[in-house]
Amino acid sequence: MSYPKEELKKYVLNYFKNKGITVEDIAKEFCSFEGKYSKDLKVSDGVKIINNKVLSDKDILQTIAVGIQLDKLAEKNMLDEPLLSIIKKDLPQFGTDELFGIYIASHFTTAGIANYGYLDQTKNGIAKKLDVSQDHGKHSTVNTFLDDIISSIIASASGYFIHKKD
Questions:
Q1: Which of 11, 44, 125, 150 minimizes the number of CB atoms within 10 Å of its CB?
Q2: What is the per-residue pLDDT across 86-125, written as a single tens digit (0 to 9) for each?
Q3: What's the CATH number where 129 sits?
Q4: Which domain holds residue 128?
Q5: What is the pLDDT of residue 83?
Q6: CA distance 12 to 58
Q7: Are the C-beta atoms of 143 and 127 separated by less than 8 Å?
Q8: Contact residues for 76 (Cβ-Cβ < 8 A; gap 6+)
Q9: How far is CA 160 from CA 71, 123, 152, in A?
Q10: Pick from 75, 73, 94: which is nearest to 134 by CA?
Q11: SS3 per residue for 47-97
């Protein structure tokens, strides 16, 4: 049995919407990131790449959905210890969220992976807002996986764009 990809994409996009994130927001960051190398890049180009290339891949959507579920379960205190505290506090020693980001970006060549590493380290824009809004276990907001997912979507779009240009 195969799960409909469009339902999975709708689930992901609805979660993003609930967090105040749109594909256009992500595309703007992609254009800002990639625009220094491609002056004619438009937000609409980013939206198309993100929708038609990155968020059209079932493996990527499934990975994003698992990350979303882990953040949601941690927000509701529905994970066992010590995993609950590790995810809620987004401990620096916890690298599984980065592995999700690397896996997503790896679908778009080594450029996607390299860009993800850079974006994960610099934490700008949406990823920074998500990271800063997370209260690291004090209340309920958990974005441990989501900030990495957003960075990996931008990196993936960039990896696709770089290789499409060649």
A1: 44
A2: 999 998 889 999 999 999 999 999 999 999 999 999 999 9
A3: 1.10.3760.10
A4: 5-165
A5: 95
A6: 12
A7: no
A8: 140
A9: 27, 21, 12
A10: 75
A11: HHHHHHHHCCCHHHHHHHHHHHHHHHHHHCCCCCCCHHHHHHHCCCCCCHH
